[in-house]
Structures are given as C-alpha cells and as structure tokens.
TrEMBL record:
<dbReference type="InterPro" id="IPR018356">
    <property type="entry name" value="Tscrpt_reg_HTH_DeoR_CS"/>
</dbReference>
<dbReference type="InterPro" id="IPR028082">
    <property type="entry name" value="Peripla_BP_I"/>
</dbReference>
<dbReference type="InterPro" id="IPR036390">
    <property type="entry name" value="WH_DNA-bd_sf"/>
</dbReference>
<dbReference type="Pfam" id="PF08220">
    <property type="entry name" value="HTH_DeoR"/>
</dbReference>
<dbReference type="Pfam" id="PF13377">
    <property type="entry name" value="Peripla_BP_3"/>
</dbReference>
<protein>
    <submittedName>
        <fullName>Regulatory protein DeoR</fullName>
    </submittedName>
</protein>
<dbReference type="GO" id="GO:0000976">
    <property type="term" value="F:transcription cis-regulatory region binding"/>
</dbReference>
<dbReference type="InterPro" id="IPR046335">
    <property type="entry name" value="LacI/GalR-like_sensor"/>
</dbReference>
<keyword id="KW-0805">Transcription regulation</keyword>
<feature type="domain" description="HTH deoR-type">
    <location>
        <begin position="3"/>
        <end position="58"/>
    </location>
</feature>
<dbReference type="GO" id="GO:0003700">
    <property type="term" value="F:DNA-binding transcription factor activity"/>
</dbReference>
<dbReference type="InterPro" id="IPR001034">
    <property type="entry name" value="DeoR_HTH"/>
</dbReference>
<keyword id="KW-0804">Transcription</keyword>
<keyword id="KW-0238">DNA-binding</keyword>
<dbReference type="InterPro" id="IPR036388">
    <property type="entry name" value="WH-like_DNA-bd_sf"/>
</dbReference>
Length: 357
C-alpha cells in the first residue's frame, strides 16, 4: 500500500471514530506500529490531525473552516478506470479532509455525453466544478464556449485551456507530460542510446508528449523518430501482429535499439512480440512505457514514466475548495500548476550501449 493511500485510510478512520489508537490502526492497515507512528507524525505536521499519547485525534486543516453547510463540488472525467482512478481517489481524499462532497460524472470520452454530465451536475447546485474534458489541449477552441457558460468556479485537470480559446483564464492543474517524455529519453541517452523510436497512443496526452520529444531532440542531441504505426494494446489477429512487426521493422531500419511507448498496454504487447521474434529485452531492445498503470506486470517489468495522478486529484480539489472557502471577494490570482512525473526504473531498459555510441 502506497503512503498516500495509507494516509487516506487513516483520515477516513479518524472521521469515523473521532480518535485513533496506534495498535488498532497497525492491525487494520497490516503495517507495523512504527509505520503508523510515522504516518501520524506526517499527518500532524500537515495539520490534518493532532497526535496524542497512543494515537491521534481530529483537527481541521490549517486555514479551513468547517462551519456552515457542506460544500458539494462536481467532478467530470473521461473515465473512472486506469489513469483517472487515482485522480478521482485523490480528489475524494481532499474533499473528505475539507468535509466536502463530490459528485462524479463520467463522459466515456464522448463530448456530447460530457456536456450532459456537466448539465446534470450543475443542476444539483454544486458550488464548483473539477473538469478533465474529453478533448485535448489541441482542440481547446471546441471547449472554450462551454467553459465560459459555466457560472460556478472551474478548475481544469490535465488540460490547460486559455486565451484566445476561452474568454478568461481558468485555474488548472496538469501533469507536465512534455517533461515526462524528456525524462524517459534522457534516461535512455544515459544508457548510451543515440537513436530512439517513439510510439504515441491517440490520446490527449500525445499532444504534450510530442512537445517533449521535440525538446529532447534539441537538448539531448539524439536522433528520434515518431512512428506513424498505430500499435495495438492487445490481440493475436493478423492485423495486430502486422502493426507490431511494422514498428519493429522501422526500429531496425532506423538503427533504434530503444523505444518509448505510450501506453503500458501497448509497450507490454510490443515486448511480447519482440521476444516472439527472438529479440532480447533489454539487450536487443530497451523499452520505456508511459503511464505506469500495469507496467510492472508485463512479461519483462517495464521501466515507466509515472504521472502523479493521485496528487493531481488532490491538488486540483484543494485549489477549488480553497477558492470556495475564501469566497468571491478573496478569489486571488489564477493559478496554472504543473506537476512533474517520475521515472520508475525496472528491467526493460538496462542495456548499456557504450560500444555503439
């Protein structure tokens, strides 16, 4: 269990019981008493509870008043699975800390469904809205008018729409995916790779990954190619295998023995096909995946770039709730926040190619 998950469970238990005991928490969470005491110390330092002898008692987050009616905020996301599962959980954890209620709407990456979900949530008289739209930043103009029509505070998640696509700037919290691409490529270069293939899934994230790839080509001085081949995430049919083989053939023709693949499922299927063709991973082909949802479960555990999904939901929700608690008279400056992903190194990119530089 990750530390943020454990902290969330501790705070939920505290709200339910009013007081926590170290021994009971350790048994409930399946960790040592030392770990629980460390967690309580961290939460105490953050002002989310108060440590007492043998456990902890509740307190309000610094600067947050719990008086008055419960705030209800809307949360609209393209999906409730994979990437957005942790985003939702992060927003939920922060809403719980503020004593607020979340109302969830899922669009299924359908723009028309998304508008219906927004309309239904707004009809509930929510105080504010968190939105990760179905459309990516390269299609901002299509979203602009709908945002400007919303009459409650809005915080965008994983999107960064601004002038001239919308009439005014919105608060947003997003992952710096361009940095994530640079992070992956920098690691491969450190292993000696000078020619690297790139496969991008058809998603909103690809817009920013392309920017990171372009930046890396300039700053790292390496040869990169973004393949037009659409990799399958799964499948043993002839078309899927042909696509995988086509990408591997491109890499061979280009002299690339390293690839960055978005996303985990596509990278895992590529590794399987490469091994079926007699290639060794990472010796013959080094692979870095992007998203780190299932990367560790691949046949060869995949090195992966991991966006801070849980923290993104937390940060966006806290930004909105602080706005709402402060009131319209003290809205403050608009904030554009970028969170950096991290690289989790596993077995799929360990080849050192000093002899090929």
């Amino acid at each position: 269990m990750l530390v943020p998950e454990r902290h969330e469970l501790i705070l939920r238990s505290l709200r339910r019981r009013g007081r926590l005991r170290v021994g009971e928490l350790a048994a409930e969470l399946g960790v040592s008493a030392i770990t629980v005491r460390r967690d309580l110390a961290e939460l105490d330092s953050a002002g989310l509870l108060r440590r007492v002898h043998g456990g902890a008692v509740g307190t309000s987050p610094a600067g947050v008043s719990q008086a008055g009616p419960q705030l209800t905020v809307g949360l609209v996301v393209p999906s409730s699975t994979f990437y957005y599962t942790d985003v939702i959980r992060g927003a939920e954890a922060m809403a719980d800390r503020y004593g607020a209620r979340l109302v969830l709407g899922v669009s299924g990456y359908d723009v028309q469904v998304e508008q219906k979900r927004i309309d239904k949530i707004l009809a509930l008289d929510v105080a504010g809205l968190l939105i990760a739209t179905a459309l990516g930043d390269e299609r901002a103009a299509e979203v602009g008018r709908r945002l400007d029509d919303i009459d409650v505070p809005v915080v965008l998640m994983e999107r960064a729409f601004g002038f001239p696509d919308v009439d005014h700037e919105y608060d947003h919290v997003r992952t710096d995916h361009a940095y994530g691409a640079l992070l992956a490529l920098r690691h491969l270069v450190s292993l000696g790779h000078r020619r690297i293939g790139i496969s991008l899934d058809a998603s909103a994230t690809a817009h920013w990954l392309r920017q990171g790839v372009a930046r890396a080509a300039d700053t790292l001085g390496v040869d990169l190619f973004v393949s037009p081949v659409v990799l399958p995430a799964r499948g043993e049919d002839a078309h899927s295998i042909a696509q995988l083989d086509a990408f591997l053939a491109e890499c061979e023709a280009y002299g690339a023995r390293a690839v960055v693949v978005h996303s985990d499922e596509h990278a895992a299927r590529l590794v399987e096909r490469a091994m079926e063709r007699g290639l060794r991973v990472p010796d013959d082909l080094a692979v870095i995946a992007y998203n780190d949802e299932t990367a560790a479960l691949a046949v060869v555990p995949l090195t992966a770039v991991c966006p801070p999904k849980f923290q993104l939901g937390e940060t966006a929700c806290e930004l909105l709730l602080r706005r709402l608690r402060a009131g319209s008279d003290r809205r403050g400056v608009t904030q554009h926040l970028s969170l950096l992903p991290e690289l989790r190194v596993r077995e799929s990119c360990g080849a050192v190619l000093a002899d090929r530089i």
